[in-house]
């Protein structure tokens, strides 16, 4: 039996588990076992699995430091890194990982960018797939590149989502979502009923209070902090914390 440890944010773990059950051979409980780990501190206490899936945004320990610890602790496992959308920060993360000999990168929103999508990464190292055309892999994997076959939803489904944001300065931009910037908490509450997601800058002085107030007001859509990771925002009710605006798409 292959044991897979999903060291990813809770909502992402739920998404993966819900969809992986629809995909052969992973839906065979005699052959594959999936477990989850929601934070870095717990991860370092876990036994070594056959496959470790690590999210770049896993809370608890700074991502570069965690890579070093993971390399040392889980060296005998296949380590798959979910790096998210490719941008300046994710490139720096991949560069750090490569310096440690880690190259199994699943890029973009799940199921990931071809040819190294999530379901293939669970079974093969990137070096085994690099250079192969999608048609070559499809003949062996049953055309896993079609999102409906792979079972992993692609957020956005071609339509822009409505996102409202308290940016605390800075120029937040995205080509994938309709971003409505708000000046204060009252304005966010007023627009919350029509929003698919709410973004709050983790740099905002009152970010923790804003998150608590939104949850207290009955806001149920994802509330995601953008910027440096802050555990207190998660404790206050934030759905997650990401470094770039587009990285928040995975919470839709």
Keyword list:
about 20% strand, alpha/beta, 10 strands, Rossmann fold, 11 helices, 5-stranded parallel beta sheet, 2 domains, about 250 residues
Helices and strands in order:
Blueprint: E1 2-7, H1 10-20, E2 32-37, H2 40-43, E3 51-55, H3 63-73, E4 78-84, H4 88-99, E5 105-107, H5 118-121, H6 126-129, H7 134-141, H8 147-150, E6 161-166, E7 177-181, H9 185-191, E8 197-201, H10 207-216, E9 223-226, H11 231-236, E10 240-242
What does this 3D model show about the protein?
The chain is an alpha/beta fold and 252 residues long. It has two domains: 2-150, 3-Layer(aba) Sandwich (Rossmann fold); 161-251, 3-Layer(aba) Sandwich (Rossmann fold), CATH 3.40.50.2300. Helix content is 32%, strand content 20%. It contains eleven helices and ten strands. The chain has a five-stranded parallel β-sheet, with helices on both faces. The protein has a five-stranded parallel β-sheet with strand order 7-6-8-9-10, covered by helices on one side. Strand 9, helix 11 (231-236) and strand 10 (240-242) form a beta-alpha-beta unit. The longest helix is centred in the middle third of the chain and has 12 residues, at 88-99. It starts with a strand and ends in a 10-residue tail after the last strand. Residues 133-160 have low confidence and may be disordered.
